[in-house]
Amino acid sequence: MSLRSSDLPVAVIGAGGAGLLAAAALRRAGVAFEVLEARDGVGGTWRYDEDGSGSACYRSLVANTSKLRMSVGRKRIPGRPWEYASHTEMLAYLEDLARDEDLLPSIRFGWTVAGARQDDGRWTLVEKEGEERAYGAVVCALPTSGRPRFAELPGRYDGEQLHSAAYRTPERFAGKDVLVVGLGTSGGEVAGDIAGTARSVQVSVRSPLWMMTRRIGGLPIDWIDNPWLARVLPWSMRRQVLAGLCKATTGGLHKYGLPRPTRRCGDDILAVSDTFPRAVRRGLVAFRPAVQSAEGRRVRFVDDTSAEVDAIVHATGFEPPTDFLPEHARPAPRSLYQGIAHTEAPNLLFVGMMEAHRALLPIADDQAAWVADVLSDRIALPGDDERRSAAARFAERRLRDFGDRREYMVDHAKYRAMLRRDRSRRGNGRRG
Ligand SMILES: Cc1cc2nc3c(=O)[nH]c(=O)nc-3n(C[C@H](O)[C@H](O)[C@H](O)COP(=O)(O)OP(=O)(O)OC[C@H]3O[C@@H](n4cnc5c(N)ncnc54)[C@H](O)[C@@H]3O)c2cc1C
């Protein structure tokens, strides 16, 4: 089954890492495309802005996956492979990628896709000011982490509130009592960043995550889950290894009050932070249970204790930024064939719409190559029923391996191997 029903170009939505990789793969496959990007530059997550509107990048942001594991294609992120890239290094790397692949002339900057319709197999995308453009297929290169999600806080809170995505620098909280709601990677990193500058930092934890630092014995932790071994070792065994690494690096924090995780290690994302464990050991962070309500500046918690705080940082995660799509075409775990092609809107594909205990861009790179093969008719997709049942089986496997909390989680090694097998079985070898 061919996906492109017309000679119209393909739209790639987003010029973050996933969008650039998708565009580069389409260019190499000889498929005409155009990239639509809301902001005025490439890089997405890694493009810092002072006003806190464009991405979740804060001033001290450093990747939590090593340069070796985050690099894509033949060009490594400059520096030593065991280092972790700062956001400026990541942005420079992605800007280089856009230049090297000659993508910049094909990107429409400042074009926010606000609506989408599908008629007769072609897509019309609508810009927020009303301009419309037609495409033969759409590749959404958007992450699961695009739209900030806030904690519910019944009552009226009079202090300052922001999402962790809008956090930039600790100075904003100098001398203030701050409550961080949520303890994933963002919650841990924000709490660690402001500890020592804020007058006090409390962290409200509803479902405690497994946490680790970036290194163990000087070695990047993501070097231990070796991709070649990961293809053959069962996930249940690798899960135990990850739990061991969490215990070895942050297990001691429980005696300072860090609540113990309740889920199996690996069923949720693993929080990664270096600054947070240091702040906890220095006694700069206090722990609270889930929030219940607010009145004035006082926040009440589910254990009936309360605290008066000047600011609340909601580090409560994100939703996929795909509400511009018609309802039947929004991504859902059971409706993505191979985690990429929408079963109910077949010329709609997703690159980067996944999570993993691993750097995401190399996975997006394999998805991009698969998409380019599909859109250049090198991979023929099976019929509707077969794609639907394969997508349902894929979702069930995810549920079995990772539980119901992270619906887009994939086992990076097995998933990438599956996409590569798909490509080579259909007569196309892997590139680079
Ligand atoms: C704080 C933070 C730290 C992270 N650290 C790591 C890490 O260390 N390692 C790792 O592997 N992953 C990390 N991630 C995940 C990271 O987002 C991905 O690895 C990767 O950079 C995502 O690339 P992307 O292109 O899918 O999304 P993004 O980088 O978010 O790019 C999406 C692009 O789409 C644009 N866009 C969105 N909606 C529209 C629209 N409607 N119309 C037009 N354009 C639109 C955005 O402006 C943006 O430029 C982190 C995420 C966050 C938030």
Topology:
Blueprint: E1 10-13, H1 17-29, E2 33-37, E3 62-66, H2 67-70, E4 84-86, H3 87-100, E5 107-109, E6 113-119, E7 122-127, E8 132-135, E9 137-140, E10 147-148, E11 155-157, E12 160-163, E13 177-181, H4 185-194, E14 200-204, E15 211-212, E16 215-216, E17 219-220, H5 227-232, H6 235-250, E18 271-272, H7 275-281, E19 285-288, E20 291-296, E21 298-301, E22 306-308, E23 311-314, E24 318-319, E25 336-337, E26 341-342, E27 348-350, H8 361-375, H9 384-402, H10 412-425
Parallel strand pairs: 1-2, 1-9, 2-5, 9-27, 11-20, 12-23, 13-14, 13-23, 14-19, 15-18
Antiparallel strand pairs: 3-4, 6-7, 7-8, 10-24, 16-17, 20-21, 21-22, 25-26
The chain binds flavin-adenine dinucleotide.
Which key phrases capture this entry?
single chain; 432 residues; alpha/beta; FAD/NAD(P)-binding domain; 10 helices; binds flavin-adenine dinucleotide
Structural summary, described in words:
This protein is of the alpha/beta class and 432 residues long. The chain has ten helices and 27 strands. It has a five-stranded parallel beta sheet with strand order 5-2-1-9-27, covered by helices on one side. The protein has a five-stranded parallel beta sheet with strand order 12-23-13-14-19. Strands 11-20-21-22 form a four-stranded mixed beta sheet, with no helix packed on it. Helix 4 (185-194) links the parallel strand 13 (177-181) and strand 14 (200-204). The longest helix has 19 residues, at 384-402. The chain starts with 9 loop residues before the first strand and ends in a 7-residue tail after the last helix.
